[in-house]
Structure formats: C-alpha cells, structure tokens
Amino acid sequence: MCKGAKGSAVSFKHNVGEALKRTFLGKTNLPQQCTVGIHDPQHEVRVWLHGIGAPRDVTFEHSIACASPFTICIGGGNWQLQDAGKGPTLEFREHDGEGRLLAKLGLRRTATILTDGPALHLFQVDRCRNYCLSAGRLWAHYLHHAYLRRRSTSHIRLSALESQAMTASFICPRRVVLVSAAWGDRSNLFPMNLLGSLNDGYFAFSLDSTRLAAPLVAGAGTVALSGIPVGRAQVAQQLGKNHKKECVPWSQLPFSTTPSTAFGIPVPCFASRVIELQLETSRNLGSHTLFVARVVRDEHRARGLQAFMVHGIYQSWRLRHGYDHSGPVSNVSTVSQV
C-alpha cells in the first residue's frame, strides 16, 4: 500500500473512532484531564472520611499517594488499627448547593507512617462508585478508558479499578504546582498535581518512582512548590518532560526566576504562592514514591484564579451545574504528575 493510501486509511479510522466517541459520550466528550481556574483553596468539593469514628472532613488532610496500587494518604487522627471498620469510605460531596454525593471510594487500611507531627494513614482503594453521570453514560466512559489503557504506551499500567479511583479522586480539584529542587550541581523544575496538605503543618506529594525527578528530590531534602496562575497553565504543561531529566538549563526557561525566601531555591517570578518544604521521610509504594515534608514557609504572593486539575467527567458535571462557563483550559496527563 502506498503512503498516501495508508495515510488515508489511518485518517478514516481516526475519523470513525472520533465519530463513535462523540455518539457514545455526547456532551460529556471532554478530555480526561482538564486544567481549570479556581481560587485557592478550592471550595467546590468536600471530602469526608466515614467508618472510623465520627465522619470527618479530610478535604485538606489527604493526598493521592500512589496510582498503582491506588493509595490514599490521610493525615491526623489518633486512630488505632482496630478502630478502622471493615468498610471505611471516602465520600466526595458538593460543598454548596444541595451537597450532592459525587463519588465514593471504599478503603482498606494498609499502613501507618509516623512523623514528628501527625501520624499518616495509608489506604488502598478496593471499590469505587461515581455519581457525576448517569450509569449508561458513565460506563460508556469506562469502556473508552479501557480502550485507551489497552493502547497506552505508559509504563504505569492501571487496572480498571485504579483508573476509576483516579477519576473519582480528581473530582476534588487538585492544584497544579511547579516543583523546584536543587542538589549539588543538579537542579530541576517540573510540574506536579499529586499532592496535598495533611495536618499540623505537613504536606505530602508523590512522584513517579522510575523518573529522574524522584531521586533528585530525595537527595535535595528541600523543595519549593510554586502555585500557578491559570493563565500560565500551558507553560507548566510544557515542562512535563523535565520529570525525565536530572538537570535543566535555568537560563533557557521561558520565564525568569527568583530565589525562594527560606531556602533560596529558584522559583518562577509569576508564582502566586510558594510553599517551601523540608522533607522528613519517603516511601516507595509502587508506581509512585510518597514524600512527606514539613512546611517551613507558605508565602502567598498574588490573588486570582489558580491552575487546578479535575477529571473530564467531573468537568462535565461542573458545566451542567454552572460551576464553570469557560470550559477546560487544557488537557494534560494525570499519571505523569501534571
């Protein structure tokens, strides 16, 4: 077959696939990962822990710790192992309006990490329910996700449950930051979205265990997280390739930098918020390494809409319920931390 004919066949197959996707997904045919502008901290979604004592709001006390096996880290709470019932759950609810239930994750306690501050509890997800779409439309999305996973070249291979848990977890808007780290003659700047505050001045974030950024951060011992105004989201997206690099040429970045206040680590001049962290411990959980750190300085530099990431399924819910009239700003990859 000549090149022209082969190209036409590929184009025809692509067009048929896109037409089928539009038919099955309808108005919910959005990118899986959508970067949207939200004020920090976000007040759209509340995350509640049920099944370990009284229901507890953990919106700002949890983080996604690992993609495979899918693991949630929850900070605080003086829980004894026997306190965890057979079926604790994490519920994602609309904060305002009717307080509608958006998703529910079933949890299984796996470990506790002790720090100088709060005890951190790790839970693997063993079941998932998503209520953002009708059952029929939701399963159309899940079938499409399965097709994409089958064709994916990513070294991280999510199971169906792990993919659904990631989808549900990104109902809660996750901030996108640029991470600055320096260790000896090596330094890097890369985007990340698997992070969250815990309790008592602690923070957690997760990096792909196979990428060069993870050992650099471990060796550096200190990092700076820079909040991103939503208008700079595309700039952050372009730096995703830095996860695979040991060092970046700072003079070639498409923006200027300035030293952070506490550690003197270079951060973007446009950073709206800079959180400087002292690493305390780390744990390889599988596809990702979880880093636990103490907040040394949290500096708010500018107001305005910040770059957050949500899943396309929740974005379609937001659009239907009037939370966002502008639609997604961009689409980027969740598993690669951006």
Approximate strand percentage: 35-45%
How far apart lie the N and C ends? 40 Å
Architecture per CATH nomenclature, i.e. the level-2 architecture of the largest domain: Roll
Q: Shape from CA axes?
A: globular
Structural class: alpha+beta
- List the domain count as a whole number: 2
Fold-level CATH name of the largest domain: Pnp Oxidase, Chain A
Strand order of the largest sheet: 3-2-6-7-8-5-4
Rounded to an integer in angstroms, the radius of gyration calculated over CA atoms is 20 Å
Query: Helix coverage percent of residues?
Result: 10-25%
Largest sheet report: 7 strands, antiparallel
How many runs of DSSP E, i.e. beta strands? 19
Question: Which characteristics define this entry?
Answer:
seven-stranded antiparallel beta sheet; 338 residues; 36% strand; alpha+beta; 19 strands; Pnp Oxidase, Chain A
Structure commentary:
The chain is of the alpha+beta class and 338 residues long. The chain folds into 2 domains: 44-172, Pnp Oxidase, Chain A (Roll); 174-307, Pnp Oxidase, Chain A. The protein is 22% helix and 36% strand. The chain has 6 helices and 19 strands. The chain has helices at residues 3-25, 135-151, 160-169, 213-220, 233-238, 312-320; strands at residues 33-38, 45-50, 56-57, 62-66, 71-75, 89-94, 101-113, 120-130, 174-175, 177-183, 186-192, 195-197, 202-208, 222-227, 257-259, 266-268, 273-284, 288-300, 306-311. Strands 3-2-6-7-8-5-4 form a 7-stranded antiparallel sheet. A 7-stranded antiparallel sheet has the order 11-10-14-17-18-13-12, with helices on one face. The chain has a 3-stranded antiparallel sheet with strand order 1-19-9. It is globular and about 55 Å long.
